[in-house]
Amino acid sequence: MKTSLVVTLIGPDRPGLVNSLAARANACGAGWMESSMAQLAGQFAGIVRLEIDEPAIADLEKSLLPLENEGLHLRFERGIPPTTASLREARLELTGHDRPGIVHEISAVLARHGVSIDKLDTACENASFSGEPLFRAHAELRVPPAVLASELRRDLEALANELMVDLSLEDQPPR
C-alpha cells in the first residue's frame, strides 16, 4: 500500500540540494508527488510529498538523514487521508501597500468562517511607479459548505477597504 510521506527541510542553500533529495527518494522507490521550495534570506526552505510503499518508509527516512550532516533540518510526517467532506474551493488574490499585519488580519477573517488555507504564496516587491513596498498574496482556500459565499466576501471586502488593498475572491470549479 502506498503512503504519503511529507518531508520538510530547511538549511543553508546550495547548488544540488534538490537533486540530492530527489536522488535519495528515487533510490528508495518513492514518487515525487508535489512540492514547494524556495530560497528565503539565504536559507533553503522546502516541503515535499513523496509517495512510497509503507514498508520502505524507514529506509527512505534513513537515506535522507545524512542530509542533516550538510546543515539541513529535516522533519518527516505521514500523510493523512483526505476527508470526504464536500468543501468548496476558492481563490483569493490581494495586492496593496505593504504594512505589518495583513496576513494576520486576512487569516483571522478566514478562520472565523472556518475556511482552510490550502496554499498561500506571498511576496513583497517595489511598486513600479512609486517604488513603495507592494504586498501581494495568492491563496487557495477550502470553504465549508455551510459558509455563505456572500458573507465571506462581505467580511473580506470590508477588511480590504479598511486595509486599503485590492482583494478578489473567486469560487473555483471542483478538481
Automatic annotation (TrEMBL):
UniProt-listed CDD domains: ACT_GcvR_2 (cd04869)
Pfam families: ACT (PF01842), ACT_6 (PF13740)
Span of domain ACT: 91-174
Gene3D superfamilies tied to this protein: 3.30.70.260
InterPro entries the record matches: ACT-like_dom_sf, ACT_dom, GcvR, UPF0237/GcvR_regulator
Protein's UniProt name: ACT domain-containing protein
Organism of this sequence: Aromatoleum toluvorans
Organism lineage string: Bacteria, Pseudomonadati, Pseudomonadota, Betaproteobacteria, Rhodocyclales
